[in-house]
Write a structure and sequence with these properties.
Layout: H1 2-54, H2 60-64, H3 77-107, H4 113-127, H5 130-142, H6 157-182, H7 185-193, H8 198-226, H9 230-235, H10 253-260, H11 266-301
Helix pairs in contact: 1-11, 3-6, 3-8, 3-10, 4-6, 5-6, 6-8, 7-8, 8-11, 10-11
Length: about 300
């Protein structure tokens, strides 16, 4: 009798606990769905506003004419070229350094304390605000050390590219490190057992296997730096005219958007919205390509 009563009490307690967990699960699921719908609604609102206000300004003039003075027609040719030039130089500076540092972390510093320190510093750099990186480049390369001395680079596209390279670097380091560590150890052991030097194993075996993931990291870094404004305000400064001189100030789409938005001139606002739409479409395209490469890499590893 006592045993049956105890069993019945345990059953009721278990049913009560199960019902409470069901209620908590339903509430948590409802709150999560509501938060997702809330975020997606605002994102959809932003994208819809961007399409409505920017689509009318996307035409041939936007790509073949330079930024205009107030109340005159023009485009973003000089700014688009500046963005392409500085992003390309930023990738050319940051990508080789990032791949080299990520390779060292994965293959040589993986089990060292110094490697742990480098990963920690890289994570800090990865999450650092871009305006801080731009201010650092401004202090080192743009500002004059003393009133009587000259700056290293001054306001220029090169200074902007260096600032963007500091944003590219931690992304590529992290991606290269992770992708190389995902390569099975048997591939390293098989190559080393044949007497192949380690550097050749890295170049001819590991890089070949991790290449899609590394390229994905580079594309994600490109998507991140494409819309950066704050670092370029401190470094590239902007330019209202067409120029290919990377040692002087140069325009960028994000800088033009910052300067044109809210100034009260209708033509400037239309160009700013059109530039925002083009920039968003470019970032979306790069992100989709990166996702496709990442999915392909995952399928090949599976």
């Amino acid at each position: 009798m006592a045993t049956a009563f105890a069993t019945d009490a345990r059953t009721r307690a278990a049913d009560k606990l199960y019902r409470r967990r069901r209620v908590v699960n339903v509430i948590a699921l409802a709150l999560a769905c509501a938060a997702a719908v809330f975020g997606l609604a605002f994102l959809g609102w932003i994208l819809w506003t961007l399409l409505v206000k920017g689509l009318g300004g996307v035409n041939l003039d936007l790509f073949i004419r330079d930024q205009p003075p107030p109340m005159e027609a023009g485009g973003l040719r000089n700014a688009i070229f500046g963005s392409i030039a500085m992003c390309t130089m930023g990738l050319l500076i940051g990508t080789p350094l990032g791949i080299a540092a990520g390779t060292w972390l994965a293959e040589y510093g993986n089990k060292r304390k110094f490697g742990t320190v480098v990963r920690f510093v890289n994570d800090i750099l990865l999450s650092a605000p871009s305006i801080v990186l731009g201010l650092f480049v401004y202090a080192v390369f743009v500002a004059k050390p003393t009133p009587d001395s000259n700056a290293l680079l001054g306001f220029s596209a090169l200074s902007g590219a260096i600032a963007l390279a500091f944003i590219v670097l931690p992304v590529v380091v992290r991606t290269t490190d992770e992708m190389l560590r995902l390569v099975p150890g048997q591939m390293r052991e098989a190559a080393l057992s044949l007497g192949v030097p380690q550097w050749k194993v890295i170049v001819q075996v590991l890089y070949k296997s991790a290449l899609p993931g590394i390229v994905t990291g580079v594309l994600l870094a490109l998507a991140r730096i494409s819309g950066e404004t704050a670092p370029l305000l401190f470094t590239a400064f902007g330019n209202s005219f067409w120029t290919v001189d990377v040692t002087g100030p140069m325009a960028a789409v994000s800088i033009v958007m910052f300067n044109f938005a809210g100034k009260g001139y209708e033509n400037w606002e239309h160009i700013a919205w059109a530039g925002a739409l083009v920039l968003t479409a470019f970032v979306l395209l790069v992100s989709l390509v990166a996702r496709a490469l990442l999915l392909r890499n995952k399928i090949s590893h599976d």
